[in-house]
Specification:
The chain has about 110 residues and is mostly helical. It folds into two domains: about 80 residues; about 30 residues, no CATH class. The chain contains four helices and no strands. α1 packs antiparallel against α2. It binds zinc ion. The site of zinc ion has 8 residues, from α4.
């Protein structure tokens, strides 16, 4: 499980790096062409692409912090325990979603 989480963490970090790179690329092209976001149709596309990338970045960063938490719990104990009711999380659920922090019953109550 630890290996799986560590591998996923590496992949997520790479993804964040690639997304940062893409975002920087978009910013660069905006600067060099002097596109006006509000009046140029191309500017609107760029703004859209940028917001897509930023929401992906946001997701990846959240995923990364979930992975960090899971890895810390593996080390310090508490991994696989529902943070809401304290019951063990079903192994099938952890297999499908290694960063799950609540059991199926608590997750479906939300
Ligand atoms: Zn629970």
């Amino acid at each position: 499980m630890e290996e799986l989480l560590a591998a996923e963490r590496t992949r997520t970090l790479e993804r964040i790096e690639a997304l940062n790179h893409d975002r920087d690329g978009i910013i660069d092209s905006t600067v060099s062409t002097g596109v006006d976001d509000e009046h140029d149709p191309e500017g609107a596309t760029i703004a859209f692409e940028r917001s897509q990338i930023e929401s992906l970045l946001d997701q990846s960063q959240r995923h990364l912090s979930e992975l960090d938490r899971a890895l810390r719990q593996l080390e310090e104990g508490g991994y696989g325990t529902c943070e809401s009711c304290g019951q063990p999380i079903a192994p099938e659920r952890l297999a499908a979603r290694p960063t799950a922090s609540t059991c199926i019953a608590c997750a479906s109550r939300r």
